[in-house]
Amino acid sequence: MINTTGLTKTYEGGPEAVANLTMSVAPGEIVGFLGPNGAGKTTAMRMLTTLLKPTSGSAVVAGHDLLGDPREVRRRIGYVSQSGGVDPAVPLGEELEVQAMLYGLSRARASARAAEVLALLDLTGLETRPGGALSGGQRRRVDIAFALTHRPVLLFLDEPTTGLDPRSRAALWDHVRRLRAEQGVTVFLTTHYLDEADALCDRLLIMDRGRIVAEGAPAALKTGGRTLDEVFLDLTGRPLGQEAGA
Amino acid sequence: MRDTWILFRHSLRVSMRQKAGVVFGAVQPLLFLVLFGPLFATIGTWETLVPGLIVQLGLMSMGLAGFGVVFEKRSGVLERLRVTPASRLALLLGRVLSNAVTLVLQTLLLVAAGYAFGMRAPLAGLAAGLVLVVVLGTGLAALSYAIALTMNEHLFAPVMSTAVVPLVLLSGSFLPMSMAPGWLDALSHASPFRYVLEALRELFAGRYASATVLTGVAVAVAFAAIGLLVGTRVFGERTA
After folding, report:
1. A2-85+153-236 is a CATH 3.40.50.300 domain
2. Which of A50, B25, B88, B131 is such that its CA lies 20 to 30 A from the CA of A213?
3. Residue A101 touches partner B, C-beta closer than 8 Å
């Protein structure tokens, strides 16, 4: 579903934010990108979602070349950014309908699809509410609803549960698991919550200073009875909560 | 085209929910009309002043259009739309066309007020003038969006609202630049808005095939083309 070769991003005058990223994600996998703030997770994700042009390297995402055919990549992926994308002033149903129409659905089908994704994420009844009137947990689910309007085969989630209370986090994890189980959606997510990575992901890529420093299933990484925290500390020399540059 | 239409309708619906905002956008030129117009009418005509106020309105309304995208950038809406297959031109044009409709409504309001004060212009001249203002405004709004995406978001409003003032004055909105001293007259020739305003005044006077009108039309079309080109490029490239 994702294959990258030497994907690199260097910002002008700065160090490599992502260096020589070579990895692959199989269809139906839930893969977590783990690392502290500034490790390059979001930069990597923004490249894979066509929002940021790589400095070098190549990638095939959802069967299409990232650089040569970005529009076809966009047709097949869903993306939930760190900051979300809910307009605080627009009724939810209306905005979901517009989102679906931008993927080629007719108005009637877009309206039906909006109702479907709202039901899927337990948001039915909120159609007329503007984004600004929703709770944090509801807004995050709406973000996912936007990303699902066109039935993507691959879903990118950038720190999907940051700022949510434990109950909302657990509910969101359930939704992600159901998406994979019921619709076969491949999920690629970034997080700096170790419990989230442990509970949700089939495989983890641990990133530090723009590079992947370890890769494997959570259980396989926790060798010798170590916790993921300890694994991370051993690999990077500092706890997960710390900034990458610190 | 379809994406542009979808985004245009959406953007327009959002704008029209704030009807007070549409009216308020025309308040400043209306105040000039009411409080400065009678004074101006002692030395000039309403047919000279109202086109000037229309250009002032266009500069303020479309020049600050980019402010909308600053909010969309902050809320993440723009980024969400950039991951859809919608073309970058559609993301820009949908907004710009919605701004153009708002400008038309505001201009009609201003023209109606001008009529109430005694301005008289042929219907064909008014219609042609409206088209000219929309063409100019389209380019201006596109440039405004490009600036909003490249500039620090906290600087956009103060910088643009300040930049609009000399552009309005140099266009000859309040007094024809032919009355200005040589250096100021020469300086104002560098502003595309002067040519468009002079063409607008000709159209309001019922003169349609003059060199002034042709120049104004050419300048407006060229300005719109450049604005859309720059705007589309920035929309495509910027990490919004």
Report:
1. yes
2. A50
3. yes
Name the residue ranges covered by the structural domains of chain A. 2-85+153-236
DSSP letters of A227-243? Answer: -HHHHHHHHHSS-TTS-
- Residue A62 region, left (φ>0) first, then alpha (ψ -120 to 50), else beta? left
What count of CB pairs under 8 Å joins A to B? 62
Tell me, yes or no, if A146 comes closer than 8 A to chain B by beta carbon: yes
Structure tokens at A52: 């940021």
Distance between CA atoms of residues A197 and B192, nearest Å: 58
Q: Can you read off the two tokens belonging to residue B40?
A: 């101006």
For residue B99, give its domain range.
2-237
| Closest CA relative to residue B217, chosen from B155, B133, B149 | B133
* DSSP structure string for B53-106: HHHHHHHHHHHTTTHHHHHHHHHTHHHHHHTSS--HHHHHHHHHHHHHHHHHHH
ipTM reported for the complex, 2 dp? 0.84
Per-residue pLDDT tens for A186-195?
999 988 788 8
SS3 A51: coil
Encode pLDDT of A148-199 as tens digits. Answer: 898 899 999 988 887 777 877 888 888 888 889 988 899 999 887 888 888 8
Q: Which of A101, A143, A150 should one mutate to test binding to chain B, selecting the residue with the greatest count of B CBs within 10 A? A: A101
A75 in reach of chain B (CB within 8 A): yes
